[in-house]
Amino acid sequence: MSAPTTPGTLPPATLAPDTTTAARRPTVDWRIRFAVLSLIWGFSFLLIKVGTEAYAPFQVTLGRLFFGTAVLAVAIAVKRERLPRGARTWGHLMVSAFFLNALPFSLFAYSELTIPSTLAGICNATSPLWGMALSMVALSEDRPTRRRVAGLGIGFIGVLTVLGAWQGFSGLDATGTAMALLASLSYPVGWIYLRRTLGGSTDSALSMTGAQLLLATIQLAVVTPLFTSFPTAFPLVPTLAVLALGALGTGLALLLQYGLVAEVGPTTAQMVTYFIPVIATAAGVLVLGEALHWNTPVGAAIVLAGAALTQSRPKARTAPDQS
């Protein structure tokens, strides 16, 4: 979940990925890696649901961050990179770790105690809408255009459709839904903060994100014992779900995303955002047997259409030939 190319749709990375990766020819075609990344992030919401069947939400989040950090630590060691230096950088990374990892991961885990994983996946797709609205206020270079404002309005209609507003939101757990939407809002808040504070950093994206996940793990390691008791049992399936959520859904997914951005550019790489709710919905219905009403896929399609508009940019006009 959020990516370096969009403000928080997925668990975002910190900065633009290293351009040095683009010089190496990958052994696996980018389309295959794109599909794998879509599947990994799409199934993350199912893994959260399975993990919370045996563990408290904070424990699921702590496990996710721990195993995700471990994967990035191995990648950093293999590439012989160093972690960022300087108290200022680590201080800003502490804040971004909260908004980009600790808070949204915990909110999604808590939300899935009372809402289907399908709804959580669709709520995650609203991050570009939140990001566009916030960036117009916080980032002076992001000027609103008719197309982007229209996308925001369309996306809002899509959210109301998913939630069944004409029925008075009946049958919907308001607290769980609000947590999922707040988690989606947290991503662009962290992205904008990071862009304003560490946008010019010379540290690599891999080392920055590794440090960020490490700090988020420490935050959860402090909070989790205060609100939960140590598990008395470790059921196999939920434990494997948390392991996969961290190692694959966080660590490996971020590495795949960096490679895609370096190879095909952020515009193409960020298209993974639009496959995530589709896969999350399919996984929830087919694997977990969650109910699916007509307004859920219809509203999700409207949300994605609005999100696509908010991320689009008008084509630059070429000067007429004067010859």
Give the key terms.
323 residues, mainly alpha, 12 helices, globular, disordered N terminus
Report what the structure shows.
This protein has about 325 residues and is mainly α. Helices cover about 65% and strands about 0% of the residues. The N terminus is likely disordered.
List the helices and strands and how they pair.
Blueprint: H1 30-51, H2 57-79, H3 87-111, H4 117-124, H5 127-138, H6 146-163, H7 174-198, H8 205-227, H9 236-264, H10 266-269, H11 276-286, H12 295-311
Beta strand %: under 5%
Helix fraction bin: 55-70%
- Spatial shape: globular
What structural class do you assign from the helix and strand content?
A: mainly alpha
Put the structure in a nutshell.
This protein is mainly alpha-helical.
